[in-house]
Amino acid sequence: MRAEDGSLAPAAGRFVSGRVMIGSEMLLRAEGISKQFLGVTALSNVDFDLAAGEVHALVGENGAGKSTLIKILTGAYRRDGGRIVLAGKPIDPSDVMDAQELGIGTVYQEVNLLPNLTVAENLFLGREPKRFGLTNRSEANRRSREILGQYGLDIDVTSLLATYSVAVRQIVAIARAVDLSGKVLILDEPTASLDAAEVSRLFSILDGLKQRGLGIVFITHFFDQVYRIADRVTILRNGHKVATRPIEGLKRIELVSLMLGRELQEQEAHVAEPVDRSQKPVVASFKALSKNGQIAPFDLEMRAGEVVGVAGLLGSGRTETAELMFGIHQPDHGTIEVDGKPVTFASPRDAIAHGFGFCPEDRKLDGIVEDLSVRENIVLALQARRGWAKPLPRKEQEAIADRYIEALDIRTSDREKPIKFLSGGNQQKVILARWLATDPRLLILDEPTRGIDVGAHAEIIRLIGELRQRGMSLLVISSELEEIVAYATRVRVLADRRHTGELPAGEISADAIMRAIASAEDETSGGGAGEGRAAEILREGTA
Amino acid sequence: MIGSRLFPLATTFVIFILAYALCYAQFPNMLSTRVIGNLLTDNAFLGIAAVGMTFVILSGGIDLSIGSVIAFTGVFLAVTMGEGGVPPLFAILLVLAITTAFGALMGAMIHYLAMPPFIVTLAGMFFARGMAFLISTDSVPIRVELYDTLQDLYFRMPGGGRLSFVGMAMLAVVVAGIVIAHFTSFGRNVYAIGGNRQSAELMGVPIARTTILIYALSSFLAGLAGIAFSLYTSAGYSLAAVGVELDAIAAVVIGGTLLTGGSGYVAGTLLGILIMGLIQTYIVFDGTLSSWWTKIVIGLLLFSFIALQRGLVWLSARRRGAAAIPA
Questions:
Q1: Residue A65 belongs to some domain of the structure
Q2: Amino acid A15: pLDDT
Q3: Count of domains in chain A?
Q4: Residues A123-166: pLDDT tens digits?
Q5: How many domains, in total, are found in chain B?
Q6: Do residues A449 and A408 share a domain?
Q7: CA-to-CA distance for A272 and A485, rounded, in angstroms?
Q8: The CATH number of the domain where B217 resides is what?
Q9: Is there a single domain that holds both residue A447 and residue A430?
Q10: How far is the C-alpha of A202 from the C-alpha of A527, rounded, in Å?
Q11: What is the mean pLDDT of chain A?
Q12: Whose CA is closest to A503, among A323, A312, A325?
């Protein structure tokens, strides 16, 4: 089920037949869209269509290709293959302005307006009404009030945009995009920073736009919002289209399985043998750890010789959990105990000093130092723990590097090669080696197998098992359910930024994990959009 | 309550009134049309250049070349009209064309080469100063009929004060600046780029054209300031107007324009110029103070204005944070 082995493409084909056409003539049709970045395929032969008066949700995990597809539709990227047809005419937008003039307007996640201009100036920037060759402010203000009135917004349009809340700015951005483009509106995670009431308001505005015949593409990773607002949903995974389904009649568990790439009822052998946890010493315990708006309070006891798998959808609080545990962010509440003694982590340095290690999700961004050699990358954490005043002797560095290059089978022509010339899998192994060199007692791995080839994938899984047997305590975050099943001795399930459940050793299977995620997502979204995730976070925040 | 947008401008205005009241309390003569007329005349060239600088800073940039451009303009006019025998009106048009093109070139380099304005205009500063020296290293007097006519042209204000031609020119430039800043698409685009260049681009602001126009405008006004300066001194000298760009930046900042761009008023720059002029006038009236006190007071004013701007940014960030989390 991994992208690298190409097994997804045929599966995608099967689901396409299930697509329901809404009317014969689509407002927007993208066919066979492909895009590569430096030889890496970001999108492969993706079809997407949008009817007038429809909200079409686009979902998928990180790196599924959602934003690449959107950027191609809006002209921010040029496609490598495929064609786009808007209202019956093939189009080829060369930049954002071009797409806007053709009728495709976009509101990005980070609202792209200018807080230092007034509301009216933001609405009319680039197309100011003129009188006698000069801009006619009163006309712009009048028309702005008129436009915003359609959205039920009665604000002083002569005030700076900066004086209004994110929600108001979002509505202004939508109003501008609709007024400018008028056919297709693309919303890229528009609810990310809105509270529950604001989300409701945004949705009633979208309902109104649907009535007016606009086609709306809605990107989100909040399931309840997909069900609240969308007519159809398209699921992307690893740059392929998995399926397009009408929302009506689509069960939540089906949607989860489409996103995670598994079909139901598939049985998996549980590879990791059960561990009698009570016999093992507690390495660290985290009690009621929480951070406002990031993760609800959770308890976690990490024992030696166990692998805690962390499962949940994108945005469920997986990485946030790891970052609190490692001192990257500081918790608002809760305590951390190492060997039974309370500790506080002001920064990752403190966590490292207590024998913690952390391999982050995005190794390009947070992990490797591209221009340093394999050796330098391996000794980095060890050196940091010793303090920079006491450099490791060169001989010792070389010995450590050679040991791990051999032990982890890191494929490099020599240890002094800059790490950027290594393949993704080997880079990942270097980062793993970096932490192993510090001989950590607790190692946190965030998506350790993302973007590496199948062979290296199996090796990482084998390595995790070995480390556990040697008595290390591991916390592994992964979107790959089979992978979690293969190494976890228990599984934490996260949804909606809270820890919703745990599967003990005997009950771990990909199926069980998926059901746990789906039921947790269901539970937390009871009561419709108004009572969605934003409300949860707010409640947690005030609790 | 005054919105945070107008607050820096209002502060500048209050400071100006207070300062003038203090001066008046000590030297009642300072509240006369003569003093006001001289204030405008003495600072005319600086005011004209500072209007251009206002646009540059509003867009988030900086123009270090204007002092050199003023000197170049003066020397160019003195030499072409004197030795060269070029008709004065033609020489003036020619020098304005040269300075405008020079500014456009700097703007194009800033945009297309993606170079920081600081570096490009620093190069422009050396280049223009060098060109002035190339034309003449001496102070060249200007003796043409047009200059005599313009120097004798003034509007007599009640109370005997004279509003000179250069003073009127500065006021006209300020008014034109206000119109351009607030009533044209170009003006909007300048504020937009200063607010957030990337957002402005996504919203369809023509970044290249606007950037080139901004620096062209600044250099054009520096050329105009050079003409005003040569009218004021009746000479062109390649060592003149050293550091005027810094005075102009000071006036813009004291006038309440954010150095980070995107917020400010041309009218504020006029107030900034008048405050700086007022300090100098006070020192002249006092007669015992060293002229360096001008620099010291301007320095203190700048410090307090930068602190004020920081405070405002901090306040609005806090308010925005509060708005995002309803209580």
A1: yes
A2: 34
A3: 3
A4: 998 888 888 888 888 899 999 999 998 888 888 999 888 888 87
A5: 1
A6: no
A7: 8
A8: 1.10.3470
A9: no
A10: 17
A11: 80
A12: A312
Tell me which residue in B5, B188, B323 faces A160 most closely, judged by beta carbons: B5
Does residue A7 carry a pLDDT above 50? no
Contacts of B8 in chain A (CB under 8 A): none
Q: What count of residues does chain B have?
A: 327
ipTM rounded to 2 decimals: 0.82
- Whether residue A443 contacts residue A435, with contact meaning beta carbons closer than 8 Å, is answered with yes
A117 touches chain B (CB under 8 A): yes
pLDDT reported for residue A62: 63
CATH of the domain at A502: 3.40.50.300
Strand partners, A134: A131
Put simply, the answer to whether B3 touches A541 (Cβ < 8 Å) is: no
Do A3 and A98 share a structural domain?
yes
Higher local confidence (pLDDT), A526 or A56: A56
In this structure, is residue B92 part of a structural domain? yes
The better pLDDT of the pair A7, A271 is held by A271
Last residue of a domain, one of A439, A456, A475: A439
**Contact at 8 Å (CB) between B140 and B126?**
no
- Chain A's closest residue to B205, CA to CA, is A126
Structural domain for A419, as ranges: 365-439
Alpha helices, H only, A23-165? 66-73, 96-102, 119-124, 137-149
The answer to whether residues A432 and A471 belong to one domain is no
Cβ of A125 within 8 Å of Cβ of B316? The answer is no
Same domain, A504 and A449: yes
Q: Are B188 and A117 inside 8 Å of each other by CB?
A: yes
Q: Quote the minimal CA–CA distance from A297 to chain B in Å.
A: 20
Give me the residue from A96, A134, A193 closest to B184, CB to CB. Answer: A134
Answer whether residue A136 is part of any domain. no
- Does some domain include residue B2? no
B contact test, residue of A100, A112, A117 with most B CBs within 10 A? A117
Q: What is the rounded distance in angstroms from the CA atom of residue A255 to the CA atom of residue A258?
A: 5
Query: What digits encode the pLDDT tens for the residues A167-222?
Result: 888 889 888 988 887 889 998 887 766 777 778 888 888 898 888 889 999 988 77
The residue among B195, B257, B81, B183 whose CA lies nearest residue A161 is: B195
Answer whether residue A197 is part of any domain. Answer: no
- Number of C-alpha atoms within 13 angstroms, CB side, residue A300? 32
Could you tell me if A352 and A387 are in contact, meaning their C-beta atoms sit under 8 angstroms apart? Answer: no
Q: Are residues A5 and A97 in the same domain?
A: yes
Contact state of A163 with B319 under an 8 Å Cβ cutoff: yes
Domain co-membership, A246 together with A342: no
Which among B188, B316, B324 has the least Cβ separation from residue A128?
A: B188
Is B276 part of a structural domain of the chain?
yes
Q: Is B1 contained in some domain?
A: no
A148 domain-assigned: no
Residues of chain B with pLDDT under 50: 1-2, 321-327
Chain B hits for A113, Cβ within 8 Å: 199, 203
Higher pLDDT, A295 or A276: A295
Angstrom distances, CA of residue B324 to CA of A144, A162, A291, B203: 23, 12, 17, 24
Q: Are residues A226 and A238 in the same domain?
A: yes
* Residue B201 belongs to domain spanning: 7-320
